[in-house]
């Protein structure tokens, strides 16, 4: 595997992970939840003999783009998530369409990037034309605090 160094300038999305309750159930000892249960096999707690019960699993699960209902849309190929860019509980997404107003190229490139206000605005329009609906889906179904930023960074892929 080779590692490419990518230089990104443009609009990117930042969001916070949203958590949801899991639908799974977990087995517990009703007398003491620290009693370890082999839920698949046991009917009674092997430590105190209480009858084992179940409850909704408390560990939350993180939503991702696959939680968007199929009939509403699919963002599978819309974005790239650059590795190691985001802080804890946060997600960074850039467009998967390299011509979507962003510069996404090998770092060796000696092209000078125009960062004028005009250019940024043009990139914004292109980004929103391509991803405006996607952003709505992200806000509704996947992440909290979805915002658009303009910036530059290097990431590896
Ligand atoms: Zn027990």
Describe, in plain words, how this protein is organized in 3D.
By secondary structure, the chain is of the alpha+beta class. It folds into two domains: 109 residues, Alpha-Beta Plaits, CATH 3.30.70; 36 residues. Strands 1, 6, 7, 8 and 9 form a five-stranded antiparallel β-sheet that branches. Strands 2-5 form a two-stranded antiparallel ribbon. The longest helix is centred in the last third of the chain and has 26 residues. It is elongated and about 75 Å long. It starts with a strand and ends with a strand. It binds zinc ion.
List keywords for this structure.
17% helix; elongated; 1 helix; Alpha-Beta Plaits; binds zinc ion; single chain; two-stranded antiparallel ribbon
Layout of helices and strands:
Elements: E1 5-17, E2 19-20, E3 25-28, E4 53-56, E5 61-62, E6 79-80, E7 90-95, E8 103-106, H1 117-142, E9 143-156
Antiparallel strand pairs: 1-7, 1-8, 1-9, 2-5, 3-4, 6-7
Bound molecules: zinc ion (ZN).
Class derived from helix and strand content: alpha+beta
Q: Please, what is the average pLDDT?
A: 85
Shape: elongated
Cα gyration radius (Å): 23 Å
| Record field, number of beta strands | 9
* CATH topology category name of the largest domain: Alpha-Beta Plaits
N-to-C CA distance: 10 Å
**What's the helix count?**
1
The CATH architecture of the largest domain? 2-Layer Sandwich
Bound ligand species: zinc ion
Characterize the biggest β-sheet: 5 strands, antiparallel
The fraction of residues in strands falls at 25-35%
One letter per element, helices H and strands E, the order comes to EEEEEEEEHE
Q: What proportion of the residues is helical, as a percent range?
A: 10-25%
CATH C-level label of the largest domain: Alpha Beta
Number of domains: 2
Low-confidence stretches: none
């Amino acid at each position: 595997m080779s590692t490419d160094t990518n230089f990104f300038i443009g609009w990117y999305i930042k969001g916070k992970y949203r958590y949801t309750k899991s639908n799974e159930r977990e087995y517990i000892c009703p007398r003491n939840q620290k009693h370890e249960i082999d839920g698949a096999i046991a009917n009674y707690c092997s430590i105190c003999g209480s009858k084992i019960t179940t409850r909704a699993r408390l560990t939350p699960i993180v939503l991702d783009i696959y939680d968007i209902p199929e009939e509403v849309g699919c963002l599978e190929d819309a974005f790239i998530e650059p590795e190691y860019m985001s802080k804890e509980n946060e997600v960074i997404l850039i467009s998967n369409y390299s011509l979507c107003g962003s510069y996404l190229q090998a770092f060796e490139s000696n092209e000078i990037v125009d960062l004028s206000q005009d250019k940024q605005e043009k990139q914004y329009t292109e980004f929103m034309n391509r991803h405006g609906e996607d952003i709505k889906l992200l806000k509704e179904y996947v992440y909290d605090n979805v915002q658009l930023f303009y910036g530059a960074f290097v990431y590896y892929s």
